[in-house]
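Z., the sequence and structure:
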Amino acid sequence: MTLTATQVKNAKPKAKLYRIADQGGLCLEVKPTGKKFWRYRYRFDGKATMLTLGTYPEVSLADARIEHMEASRTLKNGINPKQAKNVKLAEAQAQNDTFELVARAWLKKNSESWTTKTYRTNEGRLSNHVFPYIGHLPISAISPKDILGLLQRIEAKGTLETAHRVASLCSQIFKYAVFINKVEIDPVQIVKGALPPITKSRKHRAALTDPMEVGKLLRYIEEYSGHYIVKQALRVGLYTFTRSKEIRGMKWDEIDFDRKEWRIPAERMKMRKPHIVPLSNQVLTILKEVKQLNNPSKFVFPSVVNNSSILSENTLNTAIRRMGYTKEQLCYHGFRGTCTTLLYETGWPKDMVERQLAHVQTNQVRAAYDHAQYMEERTRMMQIFSDYLDSLRDGGSVIPFKKRA
């Protein structure tokens, strides 16, 4: 009697391992842990042999029967299915053609342009959700059905967002494999639409977007009674809307007072690309005042405890809390959202704003063109923006600052 999909689904673990037969030597093996495996039991040269065809539910009953049929055909041709499978895998590994080997080559290729955190996140997702299931397979043999089973397994755990992220990673790996002539198509694109969309709204960093509220924030910063260095870091951070890591790690040798530029090196940028920040007159004045302190540190805003270290990651947010803002109302990273909103609402071009945010173009030719085209315009934009912030701080009329300029 053959198995049904319901019987396979409802098979419960027992104190000892047991098997339920299907047909032609195919059976479902259920372990005490609850894990279920598809096995093909056959005899070759008079010896009993067992071949693993996959795990359930990644491999369904219908898929297991297809695998069993192919293995049976191999056996009828006088070839040991288990040995044939091992030879195929060995050949793929020798040619660096398994999914895991190609994926690790892709990881290595991109590691220089990623932060350590990004690399670890991507490698972790692949190691936890992908490699154990399809990592050993020749990448050219992986079908859309294999990918679908992989993604459905992740979705079944209630981690739909992770499933979407894993799908994106796998798709990038297959595109890389196409580029190096390992495969002809990206099977992820065929089944990616089968995943339910993520309906929850994306969590945004707490930020202020009302101009009057921004003016109030600026006055709070001016009145801040905490450490002088922290206060000035907040002021420069709002004028330049750079990331916490960038502002806290700012060094004096990165500042060109003559050119009115701050050149941030690639290793401190999220996208691992050097970035130039035009400095307004307001920022230059703050920097000159800080420099007059003659603080013997290479950092512009050193730690309040140790001059040889940068401000701690929580220092800026702690200062914002002291001003009365909760974490739901505002955080330092929200400065970027605040400034971006003001810039967009007053008509500045998206490309120029994105360039100032260091959102690097993937098209390198266009990126170089944008840099040359927008440097002068970005310098003008940053000065006008600083003047606008000052007008909000001083309680002036809320006028679209681009038009006013």
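The CA atoms of residues 226 and 319 lie 7 Å apart. Residues 211-404 form a domain with the hpI Integrase; Chain A fold (CATH 1.10.443.10).

Let me know what you think.
H.
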